[in-house]
Amino acid sequence: MHYALCLALFLVGLYGVMVKRNLIKIVISLVILESAVNMFIIMIGYRKDGIAPIMSKMMDPEVFASRSVDPIPQALVLTAIVIGLGVTAMTVALAMRLYEKYGTYDIKEIRNLKG
Amino acid sequence: MLELMGLLLIFMIIAAIVAIETRDLLAAVISVTAVGFGSVIAFFYMRAPDVAIVPIVVEVLILVILIRATLRVGLKTFVGNRDFFGMMVTIAMLLVIFLAGIRVFNDLPAFGEPVMAKMMDAPSRIYLANGLNDTGAANIVTAVLLDYRAYDTLGEATVLFTSIIGAIAIIRKKARKKPSEPEVEEWTV
After folding, report:
1. B72 touches chain A (CB under 8 A)
2. How many domains does chain B divide into?
3. N or C: which end of chain A has fewer CB within 10 A?
4. How distant is the Cα of A113 from the closest Cα of chain B, in angstroms?
5. Residue B98 domain-assigned?
6. Which residues, other chains included, contact B123 with Cβ-Cβ below 8 Å and sequence gap of 6+?
C-alpha cells in the first residue's frame, strides 16, 4: 500500500517529464522523481515501532541492534539528496541558457529553430 | 500511525499533480517545495532525523534556484501538452509500469519490516552492533557516512563541487578571452 503510493508519486513525476512542453515544468518533474526515489529507499529501511539509529548511554547494544531502523539507506539517501541539488542547479542553468538563446522555455519551438 | 504515513504520501502526490498541471509557474515551484517538505515530515516519522534535516536546506535552495529561473520579464505562458496520440501512449506506458511495479512489491518484505531483519549477516547489523566501538560515534548514520564509507562522502563532495562549477561555466555571460585575440603560444612565468 505505502510502496504503491510511493510508486504513484514516481509515476506522476515521470508523466511530467514525458508529457510537458515547458522546460521549467520538466525540471520540476525531475525534482519530484528524486523525492519519490529517496522516499522509497528510506521506506525500505523502516522498522515498525523502531528507534532512530542513535545510541544512548543507558541502551544495551544488543537491544539497540534489534530495535533500530536500518542506517545504511539513510546514509546513502543523505548523499543522494545533496547530489540531487547539484543536478537541479545544473539543469536550471542549462534551461536559463536555452532561454537566453531562444527566448522561450517551450521545447517545441526550441526544436523547430534547428539552430 | 501507518495511516498517517499514507496520508502524507497522498498529500505529496496531490502537491505533485498541482505542481505539474498548474499554469502559473511560480505556483508550480512552490508546490514542488511542498512535496519536498512533505518528504521532510515523512523522514522524521520514519526515524531518520539526519536525513530529515538536510532536505530542509536543499528544498529552500531549489526554491531559490527555480524562482530565479521563473522570474523573467515578459515570460510567455503557454498551455497544452505534446500531441494527443503521444500523450495516450505515455499514459498507457505509465499504467503498464504501475501494474508491473505493484507485482514487484509482492516480493519485498512488507512496509515496516526491513530487509536486514531477515539476513543474519547483513552489513547493517554489523554497523549497528560495532559502530560505537569501531568509530566512537553514537550516531550510526554519521559513523557510516564519515568512517565506513568515507570515500563515498568524498566522492559526493567532488560531484557537488563539479556540478556547481559546471553550472557557473554554463551560465556565465562572456568568456575570459575574446575569440578574436590571438592564441598565446608559450607560458609566461
Report:
1. yes
2. 2
3. C
4. 17
5. no
6. A72
